[in-house]
Amino acid sequence: xxxxxxxxxxxxxxxxxxxxxxxxxxxxxxxxxxxxxxxxxxxxxxxxxxxxxxxxxxxxxxxxxxxxxxxxxxxxxxxxxxxxxxxxxxxxxxxxxxxxxxxxxxxxxxxxxxxxxxxxxxxxxxxxxxxxxxxxxxxxxxxxxxxxxxxxxxxxxxxxxxxxxxxxxxxxxxxxxxxxxxxxxxxxxxxxxxxxxxxxxxxxxxxxxxxxxxxxxxxxxxxxxxxxxxxxxxxxxxxxxxxxxxxxxxxxxxxxxxxxxxxxxxxxxxxxxx
Length: 274
Known about the structure:
By secondary structure, the chain is an alpha/beta fold.
């Protein structure tokens, strides 16, 4: 199996609709041993999901805005496993006034919150698990391609662009230790987090028209989870600092297909020989 014997830390599992839940499910099916993280009142949701994944799955406390939690996480993983082979970073949040077309009016306090949780937390997680990746390892973060500006995404888009840069710098610094760091840029998926993004439904509906392989916000979770498990495995030993797209090919196409027949003027004569 792809992850046989691997010890994988997974953040971001809330409900079974969470993308991280699907990745955890596939990781278990591929032979991995997993530990989840959660915090505060939402931790009860994570613990409930942990039981659905596999009875006895442990949930460690991790609030990414609390530096002491990362120190405690390292020690807990050291005592529980002694080593870590992979880690999934699936953490993102932006206050309401940082999304939805309010880019020019968003206050610094909201931007700071979004950046700390959605971007800086990847560096903090990497620092927490790197000492335990004594035989090398893989860190994967969930992303949304932000080489271009999107409607509605605003400061979360800026944070995701910074996340992509953070991946490259972590790859630079952790590569000599045999640790790979990559991001997985998925298309729009129907998750609890997506419900908090204004205009998400319109983005989702147009995605499949441009993606040459098609796209379903409800049915594409599986392909994203499979790709994440591949990145966490040993099968991509020389891939790091990369953004891997799982979006049906949307990112490679400049615009939705054009029906040229619909543009032909009425009464136009066909070309000679047709």
